[in-house]
Amino acid sequence: MEDEGRLGEETVVSMPRQASRAEAVDEEELKVANGGTVRVSSSYRGTASQKSARRPQLTVHSAPQLKVRVYVPTNFDEVTGIADDLKARMAVIVNYEKVEAEEQRRICDFVNGACYVSDGGAKRISDYIVLYVPEGIDVSEAMSVAVLK
Q1: Alpha-carbon distance 19 to 9, whole Å?
Q2: Do 91 and 137 form a contact (C-beta atoms < 8 A)?
Q3: What is the pTM of this model?
Q4: In this predicted model, what pLDDT tens digit does every residue of 27-62 receive, in sequence order?
């Protein structure tokens, strides 16, 4: 008998309404990448604070350029330039062919120490050539490649 009290009530159903001509004028036409256009209502575009809440902010990072210097030292006095380049985060190739064995050992020890202090890495390319790289450059997979003549 509870239903008897509800017999006289009306049920209201809301239907989606179509945009009027006045609202259609409130649209903006935007150009898209392929050269076409798209109509967007100004209410969709919203304010700048609403846009940032809806859309993630993207940051573009460019990869730093790796510079490589090649040294062919003839004496120990040239090691400071090699160490300075390693400090400046440059890769260095040192060719020890023109240095006697004892001098080569001194230069190699100094450059290896500079590379170690800067958290860099070293890879022997041949009997006389060594590649030194700054921190963040992995040379563990570097392999010697035969040069085709």
Answers
A1: 30
A2: yes
A3: 0.52
A4: 777 777 777 777 777 665 555 555 555 677 777 766
